[in-house]
């Protein structure tokens, strides 16, 4: 087994242990896909039928508003699941883009395949539910932080709790994510 897949299995086993039978059933449905910087995993308006586990690299999720401004809503790094949640689960056109910010290695599973596995293996379905719960908790946390804290407090939160955001995300994307202008972010950073 490739080290890439070993890393993935190690990660999911920490969330919910899988039996050897489940792992054996899962493996044929997993595929490695590598993306260059600025490639798209998902394009706004297309139906997303793949879920990506990030082995290495960084991605952003964003949408374009009525003024064609890019609004960044999420960033994913190693051991994150990158998926257009709305599109993947509803099988309707995606409301967002997911684009790489660095060369990115992923392990991919298709929508159809994951549902086959859910129907056959309760423990794989449970793993999917636990991953979804983790994702929802993270989204809720960021939603509250972005809605209730000042620009300075939001930036300080990222410094303390999500240093990869500060180190690896271009400032213009980070400002959009924080809901502030680039100039404001530069001023807040200068006050540190």
UniProtKB/TrEMBL annotation:
<dbReference type="Pfam" id="PF00027">
    <property type="entry name" value="cNMP_binding"/>
</dbReference>
<feature type="domain" description="Cyclic nucleotide-binding">
    <location>
        <begin position="14"/>
        <end position="126"/>
    </location>
</feature>
<protein>
    <submittedName>
        <fullName>Crp/Fnr family transcriptional regulator</fullName>
    </submittedName>
</protein>
<dbReference type="InterPro" id="IPR014710">
    <property type="entry name" value="RmlC-like_jellyroll"/>
</dbReference>
<dbReference type="InterPro" id="IPR000595">
    <property type="entry name" value="cNMP-bd_dom"/>
</dbReference>
<dbReference type="InterPro" id="IPR018490">
    <property type="entry name" value="cNMP-bd_dom_sf"/>
</dbReference>
């Amino acid at each position: 087994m490739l080290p890439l897949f070993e890393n993935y299995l190690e990660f999911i086993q920490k969330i919910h242990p899988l039996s050897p039978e489940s792992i054996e059933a899962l493996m044929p449905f997993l595929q490695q896909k590598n993306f260059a910087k600025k490639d798209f995993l998902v394009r706004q308006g297309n139906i997303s039928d793949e879920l990506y586990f990030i082995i290495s690299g960084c991605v952003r999720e964003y949408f374009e508003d009525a003024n064609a401004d890019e609004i960044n809503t999420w960033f994913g790094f190693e051991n994150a699941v990158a998926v257009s949640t709305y599109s993947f689960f509803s099988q309707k056109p995606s409301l967002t883009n997911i684009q790489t910010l660095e060369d990115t290695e992923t392990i991919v599973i298709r929508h159809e395949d994951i549902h086959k596995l859910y129907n056959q293996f309760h423990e794989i379905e449970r793993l999917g539910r636990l991953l979804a719960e983790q994702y929802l908790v993270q989204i809720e946390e960021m939603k509250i932080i972005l809605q209730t804290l000042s620009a300075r407090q939001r930036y300080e939160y990222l410094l303390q709790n999500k240093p990869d955001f500060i180190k690896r995300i271009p400032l213009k994307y980070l400002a959009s994510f924080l809901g502030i202008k680039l100039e404001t972010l530069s001023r807040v950073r200068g006050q540190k």
